[in-house]
Amino acid sequence: MGIIRVDVTADILSRATKKAEEMGKLNNSITSGQGNIAGFVGEEIARQILGGTERNTYDYDLVTANGLTVDVKTKRTTVAPKDYYECSVAAFNTKQKCDYYAFVRVHNDLKSAWFLGIYPKAKYFEDAAFLRKGDVDPSNNFTVKADCYNLPINRLMESIHEVQ
User: What's the total number of domains in the chain?
Assistant: First the structure.
């Protein structure tokens, strides 16, 4: 199955915009709150793909039908993601209490998004590469804006059932 492309509907965008307005700027936001709408679009896409119930706590965003918790990590993009692109978890977010991370890319025009996959939080930090702010990621020559842990998309799982 791999990367799943999803059209961002008017309904998804409306719900995401409303949530972003209610939230305002997040503490530690790398983009000073500009990514809030995209982040909520990512959560809507992950819920659409994985199912479950929206929770929006500090620790996780979704609870699946079988009670597993999922925190959704979203990046904005200008291009369709390739499977060797990196997924990131900021170093200041390592204490979140969730079972899985789900990764989504949302196009800057907010018209399309890609569900990239999931990964168990317990294994993520063992398997991901740690990069410090200012380091250049050797896989893509991107200068990292904050300490983070990166894992390529092609290492992700497509569903929670793959890892149980």
Answer: 1
Spell out the residues 6+ positions from residue 102 whose beta carbon is closer than 8 angstroms to its own.
Answer: 46, 49, 50, 62, 70, 71, 72, 73, 115, 117, 118
DSSP 47-80: HHHH--EE---SS-SEE-TTS-EEEEEEEEESSP
**What does the pLDDT look like over 65-106, one tens digit per residue?**
999 999 999 999 999 999 999 999 999 888 999 999 999 999
DSSP structural state of residue 85: S
**What SS3 class is residue 151?**
strand
Number of H helices, E strands in the chain: 3, 9
Domain span at 54? 4-163
Asked if 60 contacts 69 with a C-beta cutoff of 8 angstroms, the reply is: yes
Q: Tokens representing 102? A: 């789900």
pLDDT surpasses 80 at 35:
no
